[in-house]
Amino acid sequence: MTTGTSQTRHSIPFLMRLITDRTSTLFAERADCPVTATQARVVMYLKKREGGPVTQHELEKYLGVSHATIKGLVQRLEAKGYVRTAFNSRDGRVKNVYLTDECTRYKERMHELVEELDARLLSGLSEAERQELTRMLEHIYNNISN
After folding, report:
1. Of 15, 33, 127, 138, which has the most beta carbons under 10 Å away?
2. CA-to-CA distance for 37 and 113, rounded, in angstroms?
3. What is the mean pLDDT of each run of 10 residues along the chain (146 residues)?
């Protein structure tokens, strides 16, 4: 896809959506990983926080999605046996999410796939360019999150 001419130039949101859709497709094409890219993001976040409780609300904020979206993601991961949920002992309105032993077989593979996609996305960029891209994307996200 060429973006250099005014006839073929795409808007930033459209390009971002194309990138997101393509990375999700690449992730889904991997038969050795039994979860979607978004489900893998949930697992990776839980992995980073392993040992401590993670609430569904924290996952909502991390992924920037609605309660209904997180509820569905968690339910699908729970149906696959990769997470379990339990109400918080201090506040019965809060639901915590935990990785299961079943998920440990796959979480390293999920991490590897995420790393492979990152490498492919950032191929040809210097470390300085990668850092600047990250800074700019975070800035763009903050612009629309407030």
Report:
1. 33
2. 9
3. 58 89 81 76 84 87 91 93 86 85 76 85 94 93 83
